[in-house]
């Protein structure tokens, strides 16, 4: 499916405008066409992919376990299935070096997405849990350059995994955030930080929109909004809950031979109508 640059530019600008501190963009992350349409139907202003959910759906592990081509084919399918802007979680960029990250971003734009998340975590590396900040800044700069060259103001959301990986607190997070913003990132994503005091410090210290990840035990969206958060996402949480339902239903059917887990399922005709037609 082709995506005219003018259309993508408009979508990208609309997506950027949704990042307002105190009135956050709320993203229930999707991982395939069906979940994306359900998220859109629920009223989401945009659709964000979860790299973990997407990888699992493709039979791979999260953490650079899926290759660029397969991941972006799924992103293209999602972007072509909804009418709202789509932002893609591209893990660490599906590439070993900055030039490769640039190639990935060009492919993201070609797939029809208008935003990316790029993480600074290292998976399976002996040198530490996080990529060196200067190296990560180069990767973000390559992403920015590739998007700008394509004529699309892609929203680059730089993920700082200090809290998620136990690799630092507020000060180290803000240092990384400043370096990534200087390299061309538009927003900063700090998963693992949900304590109100910490979130408030981050919102005040980050020069740009702050994204936090929520799940059970996290403050409600309204409380995060009051702290100055500009974007709230569910990460892999919805995918995890969906897969948990599959396991419970399967175990019940194979164990007791009953069907209580299936109570409350979506109506067949409703799903068939929502998912059966092309956009």
From TrEMBL:
GO molecular function: lyase activity
Keywords assigned: Lyase
InterPro entries registered for this protein in UniProt: ICL/PEPM, Pyrv/PenolPyrv_kinase-like_dom, Pyrv_kinase-like_dom_sf
PANTHER family: CARBOXYPHOSPHONOENOLPYRUVATE PHOSPHONOMUTASE-LIKE PROTEIN (AFU_ORTHOLOGUE AFUA_5G07230), PHOSPHOENOLPYRUVATE CARBOXYLASE
Protein name stated in the entry: Isocitrate lyase/phosphoenolpyruvate mutase family protein
């Amino acid at each position: 499916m082709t995506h005219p640059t003018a259309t993508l530019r408009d979508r990208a600008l609309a997506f950027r405008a949704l990042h307002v501190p105190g009135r956050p963009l709320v993203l229930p992350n999707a991982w395939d066409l069906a979940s994306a349409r359900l998220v859109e139907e629920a009223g989401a202003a945009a659709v964000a992919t979860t790299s973990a959910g997407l990888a699992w759906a493709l039979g791979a592990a999260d953490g650079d376990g899926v290759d660029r081509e397969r991941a972006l084919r799924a992103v293209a399918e999602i972007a072509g299935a909804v009418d709202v802007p789509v932002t893609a979680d591209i893990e660490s960029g599906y590439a070993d070096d900055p030039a490769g990250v640039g190639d990935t971003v060009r492919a993201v734009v070609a797939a029809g997405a208008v935003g990316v998340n790029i993480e600074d975590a290292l998976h399976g590396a002996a040198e530490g849990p996080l990529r060196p900040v200067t190296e990560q800044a180069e990767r973000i700069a390559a992403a920015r350059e590739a998007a700008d060259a394509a004529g699309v103001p892609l929203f680059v959301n730089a993920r700082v995994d200090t809290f998620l990986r136990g690799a630092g607190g507020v000060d180290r997070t803000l240092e990384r955030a400043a370096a990534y913003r200087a390299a061309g990132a538009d927003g900063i994503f700090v998963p693992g930080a949900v304590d109100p005091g910490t979130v408030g410090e981050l919102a005040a210290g980050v020069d740009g929109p702050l994204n936090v990840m929520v799940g059970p035990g996290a403050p409600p969206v309204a409380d995060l909004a009051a702290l100055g958060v500009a974007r709230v996402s569910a990460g892999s949480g919805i995918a995890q809950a969906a897969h948990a339902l599959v396991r419970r239903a399967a175990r019940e059917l194979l164990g007791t031979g009953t069907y209580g887990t299936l109570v409350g399922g979506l109506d067949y005709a409703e799903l068939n109508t929502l998912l059966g037609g092309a956009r």
